[in-house]
Structures are given as C-alpha cells and as structure tokens.
Design a protein that fits this description.
mainly alpha, Growth Hormone, Chain: A, 20 helices, globular
Amino acid sequence: MIFLDRNKKQVLIIGMAHLVQDIYPAFIPAITFLLKDKFSLSYFQITLILVCCRLPCLFNPLFGVISNKKIIKGMIVITPMLSSLFIGLLGLSPSYSIILLLAFLAGTSSQMFHVPSPVLVKRLSNRSPGKGMSVYMMGGELARTIGPFLITWFLTILSFEKIYILSILGFLYSLFLLVVFKIEDEILDTNKERNNLKQSWTLFYEKKDLLYTIAGATISKAFTASVVVSLVAMYLKESNYSTFLSGNSLSIMALASFFGVSITGSLSDKVGRRIIILLSTILSPILLIAILSSENHMLVVSLLLFGFVACSTAPVVITYVQECASEIPSFSNGMYMTFNFLLTSIIVLLMGKVADIVGIKNALYLSAMFSLFGFFIILTKTQKLQMKDRQCLSEVNDG
C-alpha cells in the first residue's frame, strides 16, 4: 500500500467502513427467492424492494451539501450501525409493506455514507486517485462477495427470523470508527468554494461531456450488472440449479468484481477513464449472453468474467466525476449517484415487470440488448462534443 502517504491509514479505515456498510444491503438480492416464496411475490414486487433501497438517492444532492460541513464524520461513523439495524429487522417483518419500509431506511443510511466517502478518499489519495478509489471500492465489492455467502451460510444454521444477530458487526464497527476515525479539518472541508445549490447545479450542468459519459455508463451498467444482480439468483433457482449456487452466484460475481476494481482504477490512471468505461459497456452484454448460454462449470466461468468486467467500473466512473467537476466534488458526486441510482431503479423495476410478462430468461436477453444504448451514447455524443471543442479552438487560433 505504498502509493498512499500518511493518509493511507484513513483510506483503509474508510474502505473497511465501506465493507461493513455494504455487507447488509448485499443480503437482499441473495434472499429474493426466499422472500418470493414466503410472501408470494411477483418479479415486479421483488424488484420493487431493490428500488426502495435506491429511492433515497433523491436525497443525494442534499447529502452533498450537508457533507460540506464537519457533520460528514458523523455520517460515516453512524451509517454502518444504521444499515445493519434496518437489514437485521427484515427477518422479523410481518408483511411486505414493512420490508419495503426497512429497505428504504437502509437505502437512506447507505446514501448518507456513499455521497461523502468517495470525496474524502480522493482527497486522501493525493496524486493516485484511481488507486485510492480502487482501495475504497474493493471494500464494497468484498462486501458483495461476503454478504450473500454470509446470509446463505447463516440460513443453514438459524432461521431467517434471526438475521438480526448479524447486525452486531455493524454496531461494533461504528463504535470502532468513533474511536479511531481521525481526519484533518482541511480534508473534511470537501468543498472549499462553498458554492450554493444553484451555483453548483449550473457548474455541473455545463459539463456536457461528463453528463453524456455518466448517462452512457449508467444505462449500460443498469441493464447488465444491476439487472443481473436483481434477477440472477431467481433465474438460476428456476433453472433447477441448487440453492447453494443460486444464493452464492452473487458472491461469485462480487469476488471477480473485487479483483476487477483492484485493477481498473490503477489502469485508468494510465490509459484513461473513458477507454475503460467504453470497454466495459461493449463487453458486458456479451458476457451476460454467455451466462444465459452456459451450463455447469462454464456457467461459473461466465459469472466470474461478467463480475470482473461489468461490476468493476465504479472506481473509474467516480474518479472521472471528481476530476471533471473538481470545483464541486461533493455536489457532483451526489448528483452522479442520484442519477445513477434513480435510472438504475427505473430500469431494474422495468425489467422485473418484463420478466413477469415474457419470462426471466427472455428478459435478461432483452436487457443485454438494451444495454448497448449506453455504449453508443458515450461513443457518439462525447466524440461530437470533442470535435466541436476542437473546431472552436481552431477558429479561435485562426482568429
């Protein structure tokens, strides 16, 4: 970990907080088939649970403004405890509506953590923001590896109603953060320009190249990684694979993604952010089709490759957002996450409804096809903007 200087300890602490925080939301996709059977839910209702986890993204601009204050430290300290509490109570839920409420509360806690923490990591990472963001994202991907495996293992020993026992980890880590999370006021001051909301929005909206890249990357990942995470456990279960493989398919993909994010951030420092994003948007739908066409051992290989490619671009995109909107880092991160989570929620909910109509396998094939819109948005729109910028520069020079 030599790429980080005296601040590397705090980056690791935030990365570990990311791990603990994200373990609990990772339980939900792994138990979708259990919830489906227990409450007699449709695919649409299952995806609605995941949408409720993402709905608090609407608060992200507000969290971005709040995170300019020193309250940012308290937000990071308390969120692992809150997320573990809300997810732990799922097992005691008497109805589907209570599950939706708990999912929404857990999502709110998650957004409170995810808006300010990448900004701090970038500031702490000095001249290697891609590497620092990879360390941060490795915590999240490791959580998505451990989470499904942990809940699947737990359910072989104790009942679903007792998953609140697993909440103890979140409480303990929040206590740990309260004691050891030390960070300088200069780093906590994530937006030194103190732009108000209107000024921040104006600055963000002017960055057309960034907006098109965010849109393309989000559409591609929503139709591939997000839809697969939402539906793959049920797809495998209904394809007569074992409960163990169905529940842990998410862990397989997340394990590959863990290694993916450890590489993509550093690689993007050398070859460029947009190149990595473009490669992911074209390869992800191909690998999704490979999952649907594979069986037995080749299925596991396809899941690994898909996780490595489709689920590992987050550190690249977040770093790109921070670099393109360096004047308003917290606000831009909040806006990106708002757009990302909102569009992803709509797409996941839509494909859940499509799965009810045409079947889950056909829905996944359609999702792979629709994801290509993201690739073409990045390829065509950003190239046009770059050509326009070069033309304007040429006219200025000629003048």
